[in-house]
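Appendix B, example 12.
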Amino acid sequence: MAKQGVASMLAVALVLGAFAAIPTGVRAIGVCYGVNGDNLPSAADVVNLYKSNGIDSMRIYFADTSALQALKGSGIGVIMDIGNDNLAAFASDPNAAAAWVRDNVQAFPDVSFRYIAVGNEVAGGDTQNILPAMQNIDSALSAAGLGGSIKASTAVQSGVTAGYPPSKGTFSAGHMAPIAQYLATTGAPLLANVYPYFSYTGNEAQIDLSYALFTASGTVVQDGGNAYQNLFDALVDTFYSALENAGAGNVNIVVSESGWPSDGGDAATAGNAQTYNQNLINHVGQGTPKRPGAIETYIFAMFNENKKDGAETEKHFGLFNPDKTPAYPITF
């Protein structure tokens, strides 16, 4: 997870204008499982915690053998990342990509893999490696007979888009249009990390907290026939417009991360985290003004992780503490 371009013109312009039960019709409500913390439960205990709370999907950030072993036969759908440090090798060497698929996907036939995230919020010169690495992973999945059931994509943050209102969204990062067009040919979704929290804290003078928390009493942004009452929808629909403007309007969005910290920074309280996450769960079954229908969504993250780098808030996105107690009252 990275800060989401909080000072972008998009975030400014957007304003100028305890979970509930999983809603019917949502294909998957997932939670991201990171391991950058002390005294975290065993992978087997984590999988049991997912199951006991009715969480049916998980994102893991590397080919974690312990997690993959624990996931066997669980029925939990999985997004598995390929680390950014592997992209150059996989982009240049199809055999390296094939070996990774063999060792980490084919070796676990009882794991319900859904997507392979070829990089997470890749920046700088490494962006040139995303598409060829993705193509080589797709080729390896197809050669293994898995191309129809497991899709390769990449996870991006809102900073790769620009434009206001959401209908004017475009990709501001040059590497994104070819990726979007490729996804349109494979049927894979774009994985988007969507954080109203960072947009809010980057522009508190102009973005109302209620707009970020799904608690605004009425329309905040009117975009033609689409009325936006929350920032999450506006950010997601900016992605959809960017895909359309790149000639990839048939590509779906999977929200691969979204969450709110319970400590460590502005507006980072247990109450706000609970409000955001519960409202997110309630909301994603409806979709957005531009794209009604359920949005597959993964909440960041399962645990508070005290070893995470960056701002103090990074350590406090967890739904649970390492001892498996809730970080704040939640109902699944």
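DSSP finds eleven helices and twelve strands in the chain. The radius of gyration is 19 Å.
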